[in-house]
Amino acid sequence: MNTNFKDIMSKQTDKELIKIVTIDKEDYQPLAVEAAEVEIKKGNIDVSKIEQVKIDITTELEKLKQFEAKKVSSLIRFLHFIIDTFAYFTLTFIFAYFLGLFIVTTDQSLFTLIVYLILIVVFFGYYIFMETKYQKTIGKFITKTSVVTKDGAKPALGDILRRTFCRIIPFDWISFLFTKNGLHDRLSDTTLVKDDN
Question: For the whole model, what pTM was predicted?
Fold first, then answer.
């Protein structure tokens, strides 16, 4: 295979070239590194800029490493699932009880419909309210974890809505057992991290 590294490296940004010849040098073939060095010389990239970019990239990588280390394990996520399921079923029972004081029906299908509607409203209300307002649910309060975006920021309402609606995908609740991020995390670009003490 004859790879034209000169052409490939000519399309890279200064930052990418600097990363190739410094931090990621071991990940590239010698001819690729050489082509990147030629592009750096052609672009008259100053040595001080190279050092600054190298420092910036190293800092970014360290922050990413720290962020990855803060991600929550599958066991903790399973604990969230148990606690939050208990919490929203308890809330559902309370709402159903009080609603039952005002609505009396002998029609079994109407009663079943009301129960399902309460389950749906409480489920979505619980996750959307708690994660929008606090970045966490009761389970996450107990385990001292929070929902954040992939870059560590507070999720917007749209992120939480996507995250919550993705929870109804079949088997979503066990997807986190196989990966660090569950399906609802992956599809909403969010994740769970341990809180800073």
Answer: 0.73
